[in-house]
Design goal:
Jelly Rolls; about 180 residues
C-alpha cells in the first residue's frame, strides 16, 4: 500500500511506497494502476524514460503545449534531486506557484506531476539516476521552457548558482509572464 499526499498545488501528489526491507535488500511496488486511480484518477502511461546526471545539473522547467501536454510520475533510482512542479494552468488559484520535493534513493518518494505544469529538477548528489513515466509522447515542436531562476516563481534550488549546469536549450527559456499557452 502506498501513501498519497497532495501538495500545495492541486493535482501534484507525493507518493510514498511501502518498502519491505531485510538483510537481502528491499522490495517495493512503484506503480499499481488501481491504487493510483483510486487516489489520483485515471491515467494511461505510454512511455518510461530515464536520465543520469551529475551534481548541479538542472533540467527544466519544461512543459509541452496542448494537445501534447504530459503528466509524469517521477522518481530517483540513485542519488538525490530537488524536483519541482510549477502550476501554469491559466485560471488556477495556484498559477505561478510551485511545489518542491526532495526525491532520493533513500526516501523512495515519487512525485506525480499532472498536465498543466512546468517540471524540472536539480541534482543534489554527486550523481543521480532519474526515472519517469509519461502519459503522452514527446513532441519537440510543442516543447517549451520557463527560466529556472524566474523571480516571480522564486524557487530555492538549494545549491549555489555557480554550481548549476544548464543545457544550451534551457539557457534560452523565458520568464513565466512571457509564456504562451
Amino acid at each position: 500500500m502506498m501513501t498519497f499526499t497532495e501538495t500545495n498545488i492541486k493535482g501534484v501528489w507525493i507518493i510514498e511506497p511501502k518498502v519491505f526491507a531485510d538483510a537481502r535488500g528491499y522490495f517495493m511496488e512503484t506503480f499499481k494502476q488501481p491504487e493510483f486511480e483510486q487516489h489520483i484518477g485515471e491515467i494511461n502511461f505510454v512511455q518510461d524514460n530515464e536520465s543520469q546526471s551529475s551534481f548541479g545539473v538542472l533540467r527544466g522547467l519544461h512543459y509541452q503545449l496542448p494537445p501534447h501536454a504530459q503528466s509524469k510520475l517521477v522518481r530517483v533510482i540513485q542519488g538525490k534531486v530537488l524536483d519541482v512542479a510549477v502550476d501554469i494552468r491559466r485560471g488556477s488559484p495556484t498559477f505561478g506557484q510551485h511545489a518542491a520535493v526532495e526525491l532520493s534513493d533513500e526516501n523512495k518518494r515519487q512525485l506525480f506531476v499532472p498536465r498543466g505544469m512546468a517540471h524540472g529538477f536539480v541534482v543534489l548528489s554527486p550523481k543521480a539516476v532519474f526515472a519517469y513515466k509519461v502519459d503522452n509522447y514527446y513532441a519537440p515542436q510543442a516543447e517549451r521552457g520557463i527560466r529556472f531562476d524566474d523571480p516571480d516563481i522564486g524557487i530555492d534550488w538549494r545549491i549555489q548558482m555557480n554550481d548549476i549546469m544548464l543545457s544550451d536549450k534551457d539557457k534560452l527559456n523565458t520568464l513565466l509572464k512571457n509564456i504562451a499557452l
